[in-house]
Amino acid sequence: MRGTRTATGAALAAGALAVIGLALAPTAAAVAPQTATITASCGFFGGGAATLTATQNGTSATITLTSTAISAPVAVAPDSISSTLTLARAGGGGVVFSGTKNPAMNTGDPVSVGPLPGTVAAGDRLDAYGGSLKMVIFGITVTCKANGPQAPGPFVFD
């Protein structure tokens, strides 16, 4: 009987410690806003509205860009576009998000790239305006630039 009480007490103590640990654990860092829109120009390949979606986990962040106004110049396989998105940092410089993540797209389909990983610092304020997106598709380089600041405002990282 005494062994059962000890085991029950130990289990309750472990459970209580787990609950306290969860309550005191730091919350994941967040970026605000999580989505922003821009109007971009990609030269011969089109232009128009695009949506940027940001996530953050500590100093690691990702950005995904989607646009129904900018179309794929050729059919592409998944994860075959080499993308480099540079966001301008308030106060100077920029932060680069790069990778080869994309869904399969047919010629003329809306463009979508990401999530593209990058490294951010607490307090970074990043905007597509003043930066660029370069996509290399079968040796063809497509460069897009924002025509103005993103709305509702820059991404602010915790």
UniProtKB/TrEMBL annotation:
Residues 1-25 form the signal peptide. Keywords: Signal. This is Lipoprotein. It comes from Streptomyces albidocamelliae.
